[in-house]
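Structure ticket #2291
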Amino acid sequence: MSLLGIDLGTTGVKAVCFGLSGKVLAEAYQEYPLLQFKGGRVELDPFFVWKAVSSVIRSVNAAAKKDPVEALSVSSMGESFVPIGKNGEFLSNIIANVDTRAGDQRDWWEKKVGLFELFRITGQPYHTIFSINKIKWLKENKPLLYKNTYKFLCMEDLVLFKLGGITVTDYSLAGRMMAFDIKRKIWSKKILDAAGIDAAKLPEPVPSGRIVGEVRTKVAALLGFKAGVKLVTGSIDQSAAALGAGIIKEGVAVDSLGTAECITPVFKGLKLERSMFESNYCCTAHSEPDLYVTFAFNFTGGAILKWYRNYFAELEKGLAKEKGKDVYDLITGGLPEEPTGLLVLPHFTVTGTPYYDNNSKGAILGLTLSTGKSELVKALMEGVTYEMMLNLNCLKKAGLKVKEVRVMGGGARSPYWLQLKADMYGIKTVALNVSEAGCLGGAIRAGTATGRYRNFEEAVAETVKVKKEYYPDKKKNNIYLEKFEVYKKVYPALKDILHKLN
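Resolution: structure written out below.
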């Protein structure tokens, strides 16, 4: 028997079938287009998304016939949602998390509820991405669509609905709607009344890791499942990645280094203090009743090397094609061992935490006529890492001290970047044996819910293995700490100038 983890992202879905030891038995990936329109509208076609989900499920089921799936769980991006009618029909496209049609409603929420009160209720500091803003916009601008909506479903909810005909959402995705009472674990009447949203149009919130149904017989036949496959509630993708990285205790965090970068620490009990609010850190449900996570993130992340590749690495791209090598291996090969003399402010996109500044810009400081490509590339990597050091400092001030990070995503394939992180963070940095932590987190939830593992501790011990540990070089760490004091002054000093560039 096997366990299936499904990970729904912004532009694609991955399904991985795992044995009970964590061994990958089969995997499949399928992309779908992100649709962008005027007025800040960013959408996904739900038919394309479901077609992609169906495709990867069929692929892994066909490849894992000897070990058929007995349970599955889904991790997905938060905030994105689709309205469905009473017969399950899609009433519009999926409205993506990065959709900005509703504009900035900060002043409205401050007047109606109060921003700190909003955080104290939901655990989410205000942001334009949250679902409630766009549901409110639909009611005001498309009242007939709102009236005809039976349920607004998040991405994970959509898959559970299509597979099992159920309308539930897990606590972590409910939280990212910015309408969920994180203390009472119910939809907040105060917030929904302020926004004029009917709670009956939202799915039932349930904890992660609960069996909520089975794959329907006809659907199972179409997708290659055996009968009786259990559906288990999953979570938002970063929480699933934390579980898939074996993070179920305080002091350890997953550092997901992909196109964007996100550090996700785990902690016990609710943290709704002003220090969390002021740094824009959320408090979101994790795996067990008293466990929570927060997200410290930078939207630029690994995309900074993609930017360099696209515009400055013609030679490396040509060599990579000629020799059949990874272009990033060539870009990062032969970089300086010592810290550079440059500082890069990696605000090449909107900033993420702790600033939430949509109008900042990137900057490179310290350039001279002797600055070469290798120093610049390393400085780009340092800049992204300085920004995450800033977040680690803010987390520490909020009472969340991280003693170890486990790096996932594309950046985890670079030993150079892993050692750089250890040297700059000054803490142990770990590479794991699994790259698809979100899917593994889903499989762990599915296996624990169905009794294949007694608890998360046993599941993690069975499935999560350390590949290599990286420890900081004290001399380099001291240099980076000195430079970090300068880095912390860069954004405040340049903020007004960067805003004027808009």
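Closing remark: The first strand starts at residue 2 and ends at 8.
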